[in-house]
Design brief:
With about 750 residues, this protein is of the alpha+beta class. Helix content is about 25%, strand content about 25%. Among the domains are: about 90 residues, no CATH class; about 120 residues, Neutral/alkaline non-lysosomal ceramidase, C-terminal domain (Immunoglobulin-like), CATH 2.60.40.2300.
């Protein structure tokens, strides 16, 4: 037996060698829940202090793929977060955890953490002060949920590593994004604009991962640029917005085709038809421990992973109907995106206007449908080297070559008045307009109370007028980043540029072109016109926007938020070209000075939940408002409200606060949970009693079969901060769907 085992092992190793000499890689994918606190935490994105979490639209996830060159060759891990953006502090702590587990296998050089830019996720996880003011500082629970999810998704991907293939495909996504600053785009040179048909990038690039042994697909990651602002600044439900929705639809669709004899490939309603298949096989969910809330879909570590990553999104909005004045219904001013000088009246409209959830669904479906097309037709396999380059740079003081004869420098970070005006996706403060280069006397005095900019800063940032001198503000700690990471990942002829911000459309095009030409000219034939370069936006840390020098002159929102002055893009192009040259020539590059770890100085002013109790004579889970009697049809909304406790006591990670159950064979079977697009968990306080309430709403989906259903709520509570957590459930009356 021992001898036969040796022979089997030897044969396996030989098989691996044969596979890898034929160009295959090790591939692994992982996914983990990172939903975070669903009550009372400010959302990251719109900087609206009134926008605090109050429930779950659908859950957020960290999705990871790892590729390894051969058995023990170079590798990298790419993590896609259903979050507004990456965070330097998150990256630091994730890398510390990975080092303790894997040694030097995963480091800042070969791990990329990228955000999809949803504006509907809990904030408080970034380390620089300007990004945590509206969240009342650092929110440990939000931070821990993200760090844990990244670590667990990487662990899953690592443990799932196996021989496999990666296929690449690309194509245009129609009507999922338009330029929200078209007047700034028009300032770019006419001959440059003439090279492109549109003022946004419509191309989606997709990777398809296939298990080498079974030839079954195990995941897909795609990059496409459109903002995560289909959900408005007034929304309070945690949501992955349109990219999170696309991922949910894709994963549901794949579940449907693997469980159906006649898969609805490419069907626009495929994700609707798939949802009923997601339920686990008959778990009654009757226990009262946190484990009972884990309504799993496809089994731990084995789910198909479909990720929709962000790209050069800076000036691209999903509100594709355009921007209109809320008072008159007329289009907004073209140059300033305001109405009669008022920025707050100019608001973009999504395709489902005025229903933002419908807009989210439509824009998500358009990305999902293109991804399905690319997935089904992907035949070009990526082979070749896996490689990476990474460097830390002080972006406040980079010397750039302007035209071969003159030099220029980047500046300490600063924001202009156009930043305060906001965008058509989310208007900002009253009294500002995009394009402003002047500050009124009142705001100038407020600015100077915080920090009057140095004369060097004033001159360096021109034509931007400094409204917030964040790069020169260090009390109580740094307001803005100075040291930034830039990174290049290579998978054969796919090059991923990991950028720590939001490049505008033309800025991204210039960066991609410069890197590609550098690779071709220095690669001795290893790179050619077929080399594909994609931008992974909002990766590893966050430093706001990067506009072209021409767009910078108008000082719309994106330019006013270009932190390091008019030559920011030139610095990126110069430094990425150095990385590309090193990669093409096979040389190393100095790591540079590491960014600070500011975890020890974070302020946390958000109070913790202090203990809950139900109203007199009630217990948690009791019904306050039951479902209405009668029968419901598809499209109807069924709802029930329960006396409940603050959902921050236990996030029910990889679980659910809400379930729709169906009676089958005398058992209640869970068929939908709060990770489904059409089931909503809402939390708030009863206005009369100030006791907590949880409302579950279900819009009866098209594929729901006739039968008897009920709604069920799961929650947790504490009587005091030191009390143990107790779990409870609540159940509505049964109702029929016909």
């Amino acid at each position: 037996m021992w001898r036969s085992g040796v022979l089997i092992a030897f044969g396996f190793i030989v098989g691996l060698i044969i596979r890898f000499t034929n160009g295959e890689h090790l591939i692994g994918l992982g996914s983990y829940d990172m939903t975070g606190p669903a009550a009372g935490v400010n959302m990251m994105g719109y900087a609206n202090m009134e926008q605090v979490t109050a429930g779950v639209h659908f859950r957020l996830r960290a999705r990871t793929f790892i590729v390894v060159d051969g058995i023990q060759g170079p590798r990298f891990a790419f993590v896609n977060l259903d979050a507004g953006m990456a965070s330097q502090l998150v990256t630091i702590k994730v890398l510390e955890k990975l080092k303790s587990r894997y040694g030097n296998l995963y480091t800042e050089k070969n791990v990329a953490i990228s955000g999809i830019h949803t504006h509907a996720g809990p904030g408080g996880y970034l380390q620089y002060l300007v990004y945590s003011i509206t969240s009342l500082g650092f929110v440990k629970q939000s931070f821990d949920a993200i760090v844990t999810a990244i670590e667990q998704s990487i662990i899953q991907a690592h443990n799932n590593l196996k021989p496999g293939s990666v296929f690449i495909n690309s194509g245009d996504v129609e009507n999922a994004g338009i330029n929200r600053s078209p007047s700034a785009y028009l300032l770019n040179p006419a001959e440059e604009r003439a090279r492109y048909k549109f003022n946004v990038d419509k191309e989606m690039t997709l990777l398809k991962f296939v298990d080498g042994a079974t030839q079954k697909s195990i995941g897909a990651f795609s990059w496409y640029a459109t903002h995560g602002t289909s959900m408005s600044r007034d929304n309070k439900l945690i949501s992955g917005d349109n990219k999170g929705a696309a991922a949910r639809f894709f994963e549901d669709w794949f579940a449907s085709i693997t469980n159906s004899a006649s898969p609805p490939v490419g069907d626009a309603s495929a994700q609707e038809k798939a949802k009923a298949i997601k339920a686990t096989g008959g778990q009654p969910c009757g226990k009262t421990t946190s484990q009972s809330f884990k309504v799993r879909k496809n089994g731990e570590g084995s789910r198909f992973v479909g990720a929709f990553c962000q790209s050069n999104v800076g000036d691209v909005t999903p509100n594709v109907l355009g921007a209109f004045c809320t008072d008159s219904g007329k289009p907004c001013d073209f140059n300033h995106s305001s109405c009669h000088g008022n920025d707050q009246l100019c608001v973009g409209r999504g395709p489902g206007y005025p229903d933002e959830i419908l807009s989210t669904k439509i824009i998500g479906e358009r990305q999902f449908q293109k991804a399905v097309d690319l997935f089904n037709s992907a035949t070009k396999e990526l082979s070749g080297k896996i490689d990476f380059r990474h460097v830390y740079l002080n972006f406040t003081d980079i010397e750039v070559d302007k035209d071969g004869n003159t030099k220029a420098k980047t500046c300490p970070a600063a924001l202009g008045p156009g930043f305060a005006a906001g965008t058509t996706d989310g208007p900002g403060a009253f009294g500002f307009q995009q394009g402003d280069t002047e500050i009124n006397e009142l705001w100038r005095k407020v600015r100077d109370l915080l920090k009057e900019p140095s004369q060097y800063q004033v001159d360096c940032q021109k034509p931007k007028t400094v409204l917030l001198d964040t790069g020169e503000m260090f009390v109580p700690y740094a307001w803005a980043p100075a040291v930034l990471p830039i990174q290049i990942l290579r998978l054969g002829k796919l090059i991923i540029l990991c950028v720590p911000g939001e490049f505008t459309t033309m800025a991204g095009r210039r960066l991609r072109d410069a890197v590609k030409q550098t690779l071709i000219s220095n690669g001795e034939g290893e790179f050619d016109d077929e080399t594909r370069v994609v931008i992974a936006g909002l990766t590893n840390t966050y430093s706001q926007y990067i506009a072209t020098v021409e767009e910078y002159t108008q000082q719309r929102y994106e330019a006013a938020s270009t932190l390091y002055g008019p030559h920011t893009l030139s610095a990126y192009i110069q430094e990425f070209s150095k990385l590309a040259k090193a990669m093409a020539q096979g040389t190393t590059i100095e790591t540079g000075i590491s960014p600070p770890d500011l975890s020890s100085v974070q302020l946390s002013l958000l109070p913790e939940p202090s203990g809950d109790s139900p109203p007199p004579g009630k217990k948690f889970g009791d019904i306050k408002q039951d479902v209405s009697s009668g029968s419901f049809k598809k499209g109807d909304i069924v709802s029930a409200t329960f006396w409940s406790a603050n959902p921050r006591y236990d996030l029910l990670t990889e679980g659910t606060f809400a379930v729709v159950e169906k009676l089958q064979d005398l058992r209640w079977i869970p068929v939908y949970d709060d990770d489904d697009f059409d089931l909503y968990f809402k939390w708030g306080l009863d206005n009369a009693t100030f006791f907590g309430l949880a409302t579950i709403e279900w819009q009866v989906t098209e594929e729901a079969t006739s039968g008897l259903y009920r709604l069920r709520h799961f929650g947790s509570s504490k009587k005091t901060n030191s009390s143990p957590i107790k779990y409870f459930t609540g159940t509505s009356s049964a109702f029929t769907v016909s």
